[in-house]
From TrEMBL:
InterPro entries: 4Fe4S_Fe-S-bd (IPR017896), 4Fe4S_Fe_S_CS (IPR017900), NosR_regulator (IPR052378). SUPFAM superfamilies: 4Fe-4S ferredoxins. The chain crosses the membrane at residues 60-78, 120-138, 183-205, 220-242, 337-357. GO terms for molecular function: iron-sulfur cluster binding; metal ion binding. Coiled coil: none annotated. Residues 266-294, 295-323 form the 4Fe-4S ferredoxin-type domain. Pfam families: Fer4_10, Fer4_5. Its main location: membrane. This is 4Fe-4S binding protein. It comes from the Bacteria. The keyword Acyltransferase does not apply.
Length: 385
């Protein structure tokens, strides 16, 4: 690399180093490099509307703020009934149902067998269906675009990289069996729910525990046990070293979405005719997928985060699309969807589901107030039926 003037910033140095790497890769591959318009060292500026990361991070921020509002509001709603009406009243946020995946799974089975949507926690089922639809269409975009736990895990990974200068990767012989853990957890929950008779599901949902399952979920975090607290601390600390530790190895929700994502028509696809084999896409992938060696990414680990697409310096070479891109450099005939389109599609699916639920009367779980006055103060004493 050429000598740099003293006034150049560190970011300028990194940009020039990256530019040299790209030029060298293009020279080795003997493929003419046609750069993506507007890129500097192969990347778009962070505030460019064409940058998929801008849309993803913006969507993540909005969802985190929404969930903070939902959880805070729900806490004060619970406190109103715990204190016998002595505190300020706020309406129950129906979005809390998104934190009840097991209730959603039970309601889904009940609905499929009876063709009736249950009146209790119906929104949990509808939100589950929305997330499954996202996976069917857009891979595991829910995990990297909407899930607040996924966002927190991602932030911890970035913090760890800043603190320790690198991200640690378990060896392949350990990584593969660890990834199977989330499928074992998913299998455990499916084993509990799928064989349940409809009468048992109905009895559970109508039991005192089932009626305030959302309150029990809140209490799980409010009155967290020592073992659970240690587990959370270990996971958080481990996420500083291993990126997306919870998501990659233990999340059963992500495992379920991953299986549905295998049917997604949209995939990350690479045009080998214009690829310069720089390897930047594989280095950028948080799921450690060897994107640079694949024509299309089929794996259940892909979360459609677009990190690989945004790292590619070659125009229309790596895309998130239905059809494989083909054509000589600069003449690719298939264009992928942008981050803005992904954000729009996710918004339409989520917003459409909520809109339907409100219109059909399935968004709110409204019990008579005397139920809440009686059940919530003693919720800690309620055991699983």
């Amino acid at each position: 690399m050429k000598n740099l003037p003293q006034h150049q910033s560190e970011s300028d140095v990194h940009a020039l180093c990256s530019t040299d790497d790209i030029e060298q890769a293009a020279s080795r591959s003997r493929i003419r490099l046609v750069r993506r318009p507007g890129t500097i060292a192969g990347k778009l500026p962070w505030n460019d509307v064409r940058n998929g990361k801008l849309w993803r991070h913006g969507t993540q921020l909005i969802l985190v703020l929404m969930n903070v509002y939902i959880c805070t509001t729900f806490y004060f709603w619970v406190r109103f009934y715990e204190t016998g009406g002595a505190t300020a009243y706020v309406s129950r946020p129906a979005g809390i149902e998104g934190w009840l995946p097991i209730a959603g799974l039970m309601n889904l089975k009940y609905t499929l067998e009876t063709w009736n949507i249950p009146p209790i926690h119906a929104a949990s089922m509808l939100l589950l269906l929305a997330f499954l639809l996202m996976a069917l269409l857009l891979k595991k975009a829910f995990c990297s675009w909407l899930c607040p736990v996924g966002t927190l895990s991602e932030m911890l990974g970035k913090l760890g990289k800043k603190l320790f200068g690198q991200t640690f990767f378990p060896p392949r012989w350990l990584d593969i069996p660890l990834r199977s853990l989330k499928y074992l957890l998913l299998g455990f929950f499916l084993y509990l729910v799928v064989p349940m008779p409809i009468e048992a599901i109905q009895a559970f949902l109508m039991s005192p525990y089932g009626l305030i399952a959302d309150v029990k979920m809140l209490n799980f975090f409010r009155f967290i046990g020592e073992t659970t607290l240690i587990s959370v601390i270990v996971l958080a600390f481990g996420s500083l070293f291993i990126q997306n530790l919870w998501c990659r190895y233990l999340c059963p929700y992500g495992a379920l979405l991953g299986l549905f994502s295998l049917l997604s028509p949209f995939k990350i696809r690479r045009n080998p005719e214009s690829c310069i084999d720089c390897g930047k896409c594989a280095k950028a992938c948080p799921s450690r997928i060897p994107v640079d060696r694949l024509i299309q990414v089929r794996t259940v680990e892909c979360t459609a985060c677009m990190s690989c697409v945004e790292s590619c310096p070659a125009k229309d070479t790596l895309v998130f699309s239905i059809a494989k891109p083909t054509g000589a450099p600069g003449q690719t005939r298939t264009r992928g969807v942008s981050g803005m389109v992904v954000a729009l599609l996710l918004t339409l699916i989520l917003g459409g589901t909520i809109g339907y639920a409100k219109y059909a009367g399935h968004w709110e779980t409204n019990l008579p107030e005397q139920f809440y006055y009686r059940l919530i103060p003693g919720s800690q004493m309620l055991s699983h039926p």
